[in-house]
């Protein structure tokens, strides 16, 4: 079986159960290039937006730390206060920057594979420590793709850096003639915009990597026909087991049904193929109920139990077939058969009275009318 499975190609789309199981194991489509690109771009935007505030705050912290009475440096309490105040000011200035980076690091993966938390992904696996598996991964197609992506990132980022430097060459040269504070502010803005442009260049790699990761993930999840059959057997149960369960259920139902046969008022037979057992309590039931029915061996068993408990048996082929096909076990007979069944019960009652000597003449068996829509020829 293993050889047959390995020879089959994985051409079938994954089942819903396979997709669910894969997510439970923490195996969802992800793109490291998308995450890296998003973090770099958001970092550049944060520097442009919060950069002046962070720079001014850090400058004030430095001025605060160095501009105080030298004698206070010998007082550990004052030094501690200066230190805590500096930490608080720096943390407050950098908090928006790191908060946005944290949100980006969480949102970027979710944008592709959605939210997925799985402890199974953290579980140790022996295959990860197998050196042969490691060598196989090193020389796999995935490793080749990662190598090409690495070279691609170097080429794209280096090219964008060269273009940015050449494009901003005049601005960098003009800073020589600016006052020092203005030159520093100008250089900071220029470097921030350069960082943003180079970060945006990584989108090229991300736009190539995202479709590749989606395709690669879908290809890994494909299944062979044998895998689909095995999954169906494991989830739905093997056909042999299901057939055995159905057989046991039928046997249990038959035993329950047979236990009701002794309480029947009459058994109507085909005479050999069909048998139905009817029960009627005038003061308790609106219509006669069928307590048991069967064909062939089951019908024979019904007749045997009926004979053992002296339940009257009548051979009425047409009526037995009609009741069998149009009535469920435990259900009332169809309205169209009321007259026929009433005549059967009346005839049974008259025969019993004749056997007891209450009636002199043996009753004549009446006709049993069956509507055409309820008649069963076979």
From TrEMBL:
Gene3D superfamilies per UniProt: 6.10.250.2080, secretion proteins EscU
Comp. bias regions, Basic and acidic residues: 7-26
Source species, domain of life: Bacteria
Pfam families given in the database record: Bac_export_2
Chief localization: membrane
Region (Disordered): 1-26, 359-378
Residues annotated as transmembrane: 34-54, 82-108, 147-168, 191-215
Signal sequence residues: none
Localisation: Cell membrane
Keywords, in A-Z order: Bacterial flagellum biogenesis, Bacterial flagellum protein export, Cell membrane, Cell projection, Cilium, Flagellum, Membrane, Protein transport, Transmembrane, Transmembrane helix, Transport
Endoplasmic reticulum listed as a keyword: no
Keyword Transmembrane: yes
Example of a GO cellular component annotation carried by this entry: plasma membrane
Bilayer topology: Multi-pass membrane protein
Example of a GO biological process term: bacterial-type flagellum assembly
InterPro entries: FlhB, T3SS_substrate_exporter, T3SS_substrate_exporter_C
Function: Required for formation of the rod structure in the basal body of the flagellar apparatus. Together with FliI and FliH, may constitute the export apparatus of flagellin.
Family: Belongs to the type III secretion exporter family.
Annotated protein name in UniProt: Flagellar biosynthetic protein FlhB
The encoding gene: flhB
């Amino acid at each position: 079986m293993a050889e047959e499975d390995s020879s089959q190609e994985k051409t079938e789309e994954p089942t819903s159960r396979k997709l669910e199981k894969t997510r439970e194991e923490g195996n969802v489509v992800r793109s490291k290039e998308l995450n890296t690109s998003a973090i770099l771009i958001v970092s550049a935007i944060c520097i442009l937006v919060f950069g002046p505030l962070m720079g001014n705050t850090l400058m004030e912290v430095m001025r605060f730390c160095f501009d105080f009475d030298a004698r206070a440096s010998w007082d550990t309490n004052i030094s501690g206060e200066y230190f805590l105040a500096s930490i608080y000011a720096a943390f407050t200035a950098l908090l928006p920057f790191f908060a946005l980076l944290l949100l980006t690091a969480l949102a970027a993966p979710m944008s592709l594979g959605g939210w997925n938390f799985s402890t199974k992904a953290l579980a140790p696996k022996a295959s990860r420590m197998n050196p042969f598996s490691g060598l196989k991964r090193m020389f796999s197609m995935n490793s080749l793709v990662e190598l090409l992506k690495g070279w691609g990132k170097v080429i794209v980022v280096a090219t964008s850096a060269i273009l940015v430097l050449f494009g901003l060459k005049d601005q960098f040269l003009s800073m020589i003639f600016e006052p020092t504070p203005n030159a520093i502010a100008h250089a900071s803005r220029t470097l921030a915009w350069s960082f943003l442009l180079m970060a945006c260049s990584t989108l090229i790699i991300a736009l190539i990597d995202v479709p590749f990761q989606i395709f690669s993930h879908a290809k890994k999840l494909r299944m062979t026909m044998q895998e689909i059959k095995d999954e169906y057997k494991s989830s739905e149960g093997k056909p042999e087991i299901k057939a055995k369960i159905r057989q046991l259920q039928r046997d249990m139902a038959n035993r329950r049904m047979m236990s009701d046969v002794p309480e029947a008022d009459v058994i109507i037979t085909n005479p050999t193929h069909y048998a139905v057992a009817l029960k009627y309590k005038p003061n308790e039931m609106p219509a006669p109920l069928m307590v048991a029915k069967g064909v062939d061996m089951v019908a024979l068993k019904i007749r045997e139990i009926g004979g053992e408990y002296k339940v009257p048996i009548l051979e009425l082929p047409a009526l037995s077939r009609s009741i069998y096909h149009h009535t469920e076990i435990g259900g009332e007979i169809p309205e169209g058969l009321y007259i026929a069944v009433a005549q059967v019960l009346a005839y049974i009652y008259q025969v019993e009275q004749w056997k007891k000597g209450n009636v002199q003449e043996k009753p004549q068996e009446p006709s049993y009318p069956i509507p055409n829509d309820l008649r069963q020829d076979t």
